[in-house]
Structure formats: structure tokens, C-alpha cells
Automatic annotation (TrEMBL):
Protein family (similarity comment): Belongs to the HAD-like hydrolase superfamily. CbbY/CbbZ/Gph/YieH family.
GO terms of molecular function: beta-phosphoglucomutase activity; hydrolase activity; metal ion binding
Catalytic activity: beta-D-glucose 1-phosphate = beta-D-glucose 6-phosphate
UniProt keyword annotation of Glycoprotein present: no
Keyword ATP-binding annotated: no
Cross-referenced NCBIfam families: HAD-SF-IA-v3, PGMB-YQAB-SF
This protein's name: Beta-phosphoglucomutase
Naturally occurring in which organism (per UniProt): Pseudonocardia cypriaca
Enzyme class: isomerase
Lineage, opening ranks: Bacteria, Bacillati, Actinomycetota, Actinomycetes, Pseudonocardiales
Catalytic activity, EC: 5.4.2.6
Signal peptide: none
Cofactor(s) essential for the protein: Mg(2+)
Length: 248
């Protein structure tokens, strides 16, 4: 038993925070990048330095969103508006693009040096899903999802991937828009009412709800169960293994 509605044919998993603990790697990278920028800005302007707070800022502004959107969202929360910029920006440029690029470089460095932890309950659940004959996809805002799946040893359990690279290639808006999840379901050849979304981020849960999927599972890693329900989760669990042997 997988704890899913009858008629489910596919499981669409977010990666960071659902299957792997790369959410902590991403959070650390966001904090390092933002703190370096905010500290330099405060020194330049002679204003107090206020650090990026993982406990509050990560979930509210960047978790689950594409890098550019997350970068801009947090900066605006501090009253900072920067030009968008582009690929030709110098690494130290004061643009959203440059800051987002710095964050990505830090993530890639940490994946190699720190590694990727997987949630054992998620691995058990993935095996059960595959044994049941259901299709699987990872739907992630990260451009590093393929690398993370390989490093984590999960690639063989995933049939399809729609990630930040795919979204850019296809012009798909990121979460909380439902387009990446809808694309994954279509690529797998299943209807949205036959697919279940698994998300730990508020933006991701909202994406699943907006897409009209058959069921949305919220995975509470940050003590935000009520917020996940408010954003559209049909059920909230603390670990995917909690679903084994149960019905929704």
C-alpha cells in the first residue's frame, strides 16, 4: 500500500527536501551568497548588517523557486531592487543574475565537497512505487537535479526529469506556477488526475494545487504542516515512509 488514491499512475516528486536533503545544502548556499552580498552592501552604505535567516527567509522567499525568482523575492523583502542582468554580467556585479549565478556555483561546490544525503524513508517509498508499477518523475526548480540524482544513487528509480534546465529550454514558468508538473505528467503520458505531487515547499504545494492534480502530498521537513495544508496539500506527512501501508 502506498497511501495514494485509486487510479494513480504516476508520482511526481520534488527533489530537494523530498527525496534528498540537498535542501540543507541549498539553504547554506543561499545564506553564504546573501550574507556576503548584504555585508558588503551594509559596509558600503554605512547601514547595519542583517543576515539571511534560514529559519524564516529560506521557506518564505527562496525554497522551491527558480534561482532568479528566489533571489529577487528575498532582495525585495529587504527593500532592495536590482537590475535583472544577464549571462555577460561579471561575477561580482550587483544584478539578480550575478547573485543567482554565485549561489549556483556554491551549490555545485557543496554537492561535490559535502555530498548529498538521501532520506531513507524516501528511498523505501521510491522502491515501493516502482514495485507497484507506477511511473516516477522528479520535478525540480534546480538546474543541478541530474547531478544530484546521480550522486545520491537515485537515478535508476526515476523515469523522467523536468528541472531548471528543462524549464529554461521549454520556456516553462517555475513554481508556484503548475507548468513544470503538468509537463512531467504529459511527458509520462498520464492525466493530471492520475498523478500525485510530492512537495515540501509551500510554492511547490501551491503548484500542485493550481495544476489540479489528483492528490498533493505535503512533506513537512520544517515544521510548517499547517502552512502546507493552507497552500493546498491534501495530506501532510513528516516522511514518505509514513504513507506505506496506508490509504489517504
Amino acid at each position: 500500500m502506498l497511501g495514494l488514491p485509486d487510479g494513480t499512475r504516476a508520482c511526481l516528486f520534488d527533489l530537494d527536501g523530498v527525496l534528498t536533503d540537498t535542501a540543507s545544502v541549498h539553504a547554506a548556499a543561499w545564506k553564504q551568497m546573501f550574507d556576503e552580498y548584504l555585508r558588503a552592501r551594509a559596509e558600503r552604505e554605512g547601514t547595519p548588517f542583517r543576515a539571511f535567516d534560514i529559519a524564516t527567509d529560506y521557506a518564505a522567499y527562496v525554497d522551491g523557486k527558480p534561482r532568479m525568482a528566489g533571489t529577487d523575492s528575498f532582495l525585495r523583502s529587504r527593500g532592495i531592487e536590482l537590475p535583472e542582468g544577464g549571462p555577460d554580467d561579471a561575477p561580482d556585479a550587483d544584478t539578480v543574475y550575478a547573485l543567482a549565478t554565485r549561489k549556483n556555483a556554491l551549490v555545485q561546490e557543496k554537492i561535490v565537497t559535502v555530498g548529498v544525503e538521501v532520506y531513507p524513508g524516501s528511498v523505501r517509498y521510491l522502491h515501493a512505487v516502482k514495485d507497484a508499477g507506477l511511473a516516477t518523475a522528479v520535478v525540480s526548480s534546480s538546474a543541478n537535479a541530474g547531478q544530484v540524482l546521480e550522486v545520491a544513487g537515485l537515478a535508476h528509480l526515476i523515469d523522467h526529469r523536468v528541472d531548471g534546465v528543462t524549464a529554461k529550454e521549454r520556456g516553462l514558468p517555475g513554481k508556484p506556477a503548475p507548468d513544470t508538473f503538468l509537463a512531467a505528467a504529459a511527458d509520462l503520458g498520464v492525466g493530471k488526475d492520475e498523478a500525485v505531487v510530492f512537495e515540501d515547499a509551500l510554492a511547490g504545494v501551491a503548484s500542485g494545487k493550481a495544476g489540479g492534480f489528483g492528490f498533493v502530498v505535503g512533506v513537512d521537513r520544517l515544521g510548517q504542516a499547517e502552512a502546507l495544508r493552507a497552500h493546498g496539500a491534501d495530506i501532510v506527512v513528516t516522511d514518505l515512509a509514513d504513507l506505506l501501508g496506508g490509504k489517504p
